[in-house]
Design brief:
8 copies of one chain form a homooctamer. With 235 residues, the first copy, chain A, is an alpha/beta fold. Chain A has helices at residues 19-25, 45-51, 55-63, 85-97, 104-115, 128-140, 156-160, 164-172, 195-202, 209-221; strands spanning 6-13, 31-38, 69-72, 101-103, 119-124, 144-150, 181-184, 206-208. Chain A has 10 helices and 8 strands. Chains A and B meet through helix 1, strand 2, helix 3 and helix 7 of A and helix 1, strand 2, helix 3 and helix 7 of B.
């Protein structure tokens, strides 16, 4: 059987082309990944709110695959309605499937806390409205946002078409002098190839949406390998 | 971007836990895989027929990920209604997504022809009714079925819990003296680890549902690597 | 000559198909393994007691191969008659062959002590009667049994047909919250592939029958390599 | 389960310390080896004849391990009573266990024929009487013995204490100008490390007792890998 | 000394950031590369014509490094003035330095001829005017241009910022059904990572500016290694 | 794009054949190197002073390649006019290109300070006059020169023709008993293959012109890998 | 040139077949070994004393090869005349060649002191008379000999014909309970393959003739690599 | 024992520092090399003739090491007295030691014949007189000398101080247009690192003194591995 050590379910926006490969390429020995999709084309508040209507259907699909935990892989999709929305998503999945769930917006806060980061410089691919919602969400959760820059991309497919080099260069250009760490937002924005180089070159912890979600999900199922994805995995 | 060489979409039964890992572990460099699920718990004719109602919804989801082709990963699900049903499934997906599609029941016939196999010994995990439907489907397509043995498993999750060693031993025990080749049916039944050992030990070509579907999908997008999955990939 | 560093003799139940491969795959450079078999088909008390009549004959056979030590590879077979039976088996072999001997039921106690484990959660493939005898044997030796779960398999060949994945999942489901460590019993039950992953995921020491017997035998002949078989080998 | 591809049983003289390691180090993926011993200390005709009384007991032991075939690993032990004795041993095992069996003295003849060797130069570790019996056995089977040299060792443990370098040098010193090939006799005499170098340096096929027995046993169970043990495995 | 086997000089547009790394990463053992730059910011006819005034100065610089040959690494820069301009550039360098020289526009024709390609589908990053000049240049040299698509980039730095994935996808989209082969133009446009995958997926020879120039330069100095850069290096 | 992590420009004497290969062979992942040449044939004071007239032209060329920093790779060329000349060169480049610059004569002082070296034994390939200028330059900067030996080579091409073995043996023969460390001067004199062996065998830090310049340039762009180039890279 | 880092000369008995291969297989990068032979067939006092007459001739031969140091590779040959003879040999070579020299009998004492060993258990291949001379030599130098066992071999070629397995087993059988360490004597007796396993299994430092001589010679030329030859090389 | 497959003795000029390392680095598995030296400082006719007086003494030394063959490693030393001198040297060694011998000047002729070379371009490090003797020797043996260039080095230590890069460049500069192959003379002149690159770049067979002598010696002892030393080893 695949997934004898643990099976992970993943619910993600249909147009996301990054989350599945990033998770698969770093899955610990003995784990398997199984995906269900929610329809989304554009990364804006209205579309993200509509998308959440599919959470229950996707949860039911994954439950038939006997998954041991479910990750909800979307950053803005789990914070778009503000404080508390992330835990609400987690609860809806857990109640339905009877297994633990993590949602990206909650996972990144757990990652910040594990690394003891209070202030952050943030790189995103988002449009202005989503950037503001993310900043407010983090501030209400008690974190200071030192700098936040976005690429102004609304089509989610355009985000997935970027290369990790783009992400590296955007993160290098942030004004992060005062920040405890750097956060790169969006599960469709590639970071796994460059997170360790960024940490070396910036000499600061770097948290990214997919890295934090994977770390949180692995914690949940009690599988804790040494992944080459930055300091978070040494916590 | 992931999938710069080609992006493959996969539509599969929700309880299938084998197809995604087998495809991911052998994906050619530069390709990515994106999944959508149709609800299915038991492998019987009624459930398989119902499942097909979700083809269009799944196709729409994958279309937003800009996939270059779509595979319908279910053997009995694409032959349960008899001759012609496999091509019908392919056509419904192609018409909707505007990209080429392959369905397992059609892919295995293309594989048999590529290897020039006219008679087959067949191992399946299925219950008797599905075995009979599969045999009839192949006979009507002009192939001779020399032997066919099933494990009598109806719960799809039970099929996915088997190990490749089980598959190897079942295939060794077939009466295949007169057959041109061996076929191992079901995209939820593990074969990728043992297909080449089986070919060596039986000294015959071995076709399996996932192997044939992957091979067919790669042909469709024009990416043709040397995968260590048996003689079919040398065609 | 094979075994220039040390030759290890192994006496085991005839139906055991796991002990030889697990030992061979981890034998230190310069060591060799030589086997003699005692007839056993079912793992129950009566059969195990009868089996012991062959100890002397097997010892004599191995003595002609100039072995430097002898391992008696059977857990319940060296505890079935209760406290003291394990050392009795060791003495019978040593007196006959003139070289040191270890018996699994004694080796696991040495392993618990080396790791400083006083309370244990235990997974076995055994029937209820053998589970109770093992629990009593360990309690009389001063260890606390926090939980003990068995697979209820009596045919020894059925135990050897299990995969390490089965063992992993059984051990994960134990109630081990209060235990100092986990013990997986039976030299015919596969554990070598997953003992280190279990220790990582449970964050506790894991002792298994074959691991403890091999460790004890290597101590006896003064060959002490770094084997990737868990914390016991770091003692 | 170990041995999912095939399980091989091995019956060998108790003082043999070479056969188990040579087989284990070259066992194909998915196969396992299980041993039973017959008492033997000295390599002479009387002792070898007595040893054969244990064939049935050993066969019964291995049968409980569900082996798929049994090898009788002793050259002179399967020819000491002259022509036909080798097939007699095979038949006794097969009748008892219900699985195919091979005996070394028969396996080497199958190897000579596969390589098309009619005349042989022979190196053995044996005393004169056994050398003569072996020569007669092969002549009666229709092979020409061009040269035959023995080390005059009677204690079987002394044979097992030799290194492969000894074997190489003995084989190089044979008068093999006219021979089709070279045969190195005795399953306790090490050859696996040097069989390919010998073939390169002598520019002739080299058959050895363990190599031929393993090759024959693998043919029997239909597992045919590429082992680096000389030209015989290319047949 | 570096370059004991051969030293290669390279003259290239100052804004080219691709040619040096592509050559360095594939330089045969014992060769070294030494660069001189001609000022160029935009890839248009006027700027390319002006740039050529620096050929002699760059040649003189490289001559002091005792190079064994000089490559002029610019496609449009060696064809912008039409038929014959490529050989004129080569002659100016050779006369000045006393060593052989190759210019990209001449090298690609030698590559086409070595591969026996008469008709080509062409991908470039250029603006329309340069595309037309290149098409005319090749037609006058006797080649048929089946299709030609450009990215319309004028800033040379923008060309160098593209990834090989971009190049792969552009080349896949050409209408190359009737063409003998595919040509990817521009020494600042990355191709070395994907030239072999393109040849596999298109099943046609692929020539690129840097690949052809390096191949031609290596021919000139008589160093002919097996580089993994497509069929041209098997000529 | 090449150089997504950082692009390094290099200005060097035209006859230097060592600096480019030494830098390229040790460039961190994600960096690229781009070169511009200043005319120089002989390593004497007059020629080195003239050469500096080309600094601005070379800077302009590299600026069009969007480099993130520029290294001026010449030791005596950046100290020939005495104290302060090294910083003057750096300032001229920085003012012109708008990016940070390092010059070898300044980089070696930064390296000495990072390693806390106050007294040095020095090996050079230079003629007497340049040796004296270098000694004076270092003394005025506050370092003690314990020993200084030169090879008396004036033709720069002759320096580049030496092998690292020559450098090793010259450095071993210095009288360095009292020195804190050893300095090997000249960016055209090969040291990268032997710097770590020298440090091991002398048991002292070793600084070399190319090693210090590369280290300083990497500091400047904030890319700090573990290069196997001696203790300086552990600072 | 070979030996650019250092050239080592070796003077050894003509019948020694072990010293050259053991040194060559562990020579640090950049070193070379050059040999001269003194006639010796039997390892007895008379022959060893005569052999020493050739020291000067051998020294002269090696001097023409520009060696940087000379090792006299013979244990009993440098102690056969008692206390002080080892240093006398070293002085004779140094005076003649003008480079440092080491003799095995002096090197082993330096090794004992580096490891702080005062009492030793000793394994040799020698006859009784040489064993007594060695014991006396070491006692007079202040070391305690806890046990000393010899193989009683007089023909030096017979010593060289032994395998490292023989050495290992002889050393394991010493009575070394009270000894600080183990010494294996004779430069013709193989130890390099087993010195680290012996140290692990005995849990004591092991010094051997060739290991100590090589270590001492490397110290002399100031080349100090990490060789996998036991704790001595960590000193 | 070292050299269980074969032991090779080597007689060479005392100042030769290349022959031992080149042979050792390419010695087939199971072979060992043992050296004896004849005094020689300068490579001129008088010194080479005197040197030959030591052949018998060196032969006797190597005979005590039980070598299986002896190589006389000196090109001009085995041809200085003209036609027939090479075979005379071989005969003197064979008569004395009772094992086969090869001398370089004879080995190269055997190599030319094996490769079917009748005309040669020759690179040597020698002075004019030795070059003329070599040319005459080869002409009298029936070979045509198309070109012959020497480095005019008389001190043998100076020859050994050259690097393989020097040899490569000298061989490239020969006028070898009409020659069947290239010959690089002198066992003290390094060629093993570059012989295959030379053959690739010149597209002709290359024979060198050490390569031919090693090949010839291996033929003699019947050990014939695939060494990466050019086309001669494919004969």
């Amino acid at each position: 059987m695949y997934g004898w050590r643990s099976r992970l379910g993943l619910i993600l926006p249909s147009s996301n082309t990054t989350n599945e490969p990033e998770f698969y390429n770093h899955l610990p020995d003995g784990m398997s990944l199984h995906t269900a999709r929610m329809r989304l084309e554009n990364a804006n508040a209205k579309a993200l709110e509509d998308m959440a209507n599919e959470v229950e259907r996707c949860t039911d699909l994954l439950a038939t695959a006997d998954v041991d935990a479910i990750a909800y892989g979307c950053t803005t999709g789990s914070l778009v309605k503000g404080a508390g929305y992330d835990e609400e998503i987690e609860t809806r999945i857990e109640d339905r499937a009877g297994v633990p769930a993590v949602a990206t917006a909650a996972s990144i806060k757990r990652a910040f806390d594990a690394l003891n980061l209070r202030s952050l410089a943030i790189a995103t691919p988002y449009i202005q409205d989503l950037n503001e919602r993310e900043e407010r969400f983090l501030q209400e959760a008690g974190y200071e946002v030192v700098d936040l820059q976005g690429l102004e991309l609304e089509a989610n497919s355009a985000i997935g078409d970027r290369t990790p080099e783009t992400t590296y260069r955007q993160a290098r250009m942030l004004n992060h002098g005062d920040a405890d760490g750097v956060f790169i937002s969006c599960t469709n924005y590639r970071t796994f190839e460059i997170v360790e180089q960024l940490e070396t070159d910036l000499d600061k912890p770097v948290v990214t949406s997919n890295q934090a979600t994977l770390w949180d999900a692995l914690q949940t199922v009690g599988v804790e390998p040494d992944l080459p994805l930055g300091r978070l995995f040494e916590c």
